[in-house]
TrEMBL record:
It comes from Coprococcus comes. GO terms for molecular function: NAD binding; phosphoglycerate dehydrogenase activity. Pathway: Amino-acid biosynthesis; L-serine biosynthesis; L-serine from 3-phospho-D-glycerate: step 1/3. The keyword Nucleus does not apply. The keyword Cytoplasm does not apply. The chain holds residues 1 to 302 of 386 of the full protein. It catalyses: (R)-2-hydroxyglutarate + NAD(+) = 2-oxoglutarate + NADH + H(+); (2R)-3-phosphoglycerate + NAD(+) = 3-phosphooxypyruvate + NADH + H(+). Its EC number is 1.1.1.399, 1.1.1.95. This is D-3-phosphoglycerate dehydrogenase. Belongs to the D-isomer specific 2-hydroxyacid dehydrogenase family. It is an enzyme of class 1 (oxidoreductase).
Amino acid sequence: MYKYFCLNPISPVGLEKFSDDYVPAGEMAGADAVLVRSAGMHELEFDKDLKAIARAGAGVNNIPLDKCAEQGIVVFNTPGANANGVKELVIAGMLLASRDILGGINWVQENEEDGNIAKDAEKAKKAFAGCEIQGKKLGVIGLGAIGVLVANAATHLGMEVYGYDPYVSVDSAWRLSRSIHHTKNVDEIYKECDYITIHVPALEDTKGMINKNAISLMKEGVVILNFARDVLVNSEDIVDALVGGKVGRYVTDFPTPEIAGVKHAIVIPHLGASTAESEDNCAKMAVEELKDFLENGNIRNS
Ligand code: MLT
């Protein structure tokens, strides 16, 4: 028998994949395996029974990897399992930044009781006018599972797409639409693009990569989208650039205190992977990985 513990609620569609040999544990102590979504694990103690942690998601920055390595605990993630959910929210983020959908919705809510909507409709059309994304240049930094989906979807919306990833060669980026301009120089993206979206992991050399130096190369009014990790963007520099107008909009899925409430920031409470489909896919992949490891010793996505 194996005991597993869910540190966060995990989709039942995934948990159903456990056979009768697996029993849920009421606490982490004594469990063979832990399933986790976004809960921070850095402060937790792991006892000797714990063999594996499966993160139902891509990023593993909530897990103390060094401590796990020291204690021989294998850590899995589920790359790609929620990529479509994130891709769809990135596209929505570009549209939110380009059309004042939120301003218009708020205006209707504020005015509906007074019956002013029909009377002021023409004023609203002017006040909430936006621009189209078709024909604009999008730079995608990071061509992993999510970046590739975003890049391909944007070409279908008529955008001119630039892709950059130091670890993906032009030849191996076969999943990219042929019409994407694959650049080896990230500065080209900073200089050329109207929209820039980041899809890289939070590593020592990517932390703070969007800082005042990078921003200084960008176009006036550029839209930056961050659905990857908050630490990739230097918060002080992005706030300055939003206040000064160099960055037109910053769309982020990370509601940190530094950015919440800043004018022209569109702040979403980490909802990229919050779809039924993504949650089911992540849970299924995480459970399959745990079972394959505990029963067969196989290690995938570690
Ligand atoms: C991820 O890293 O894939 C996301 O943080 C997933 C999530 O929202 O749990």
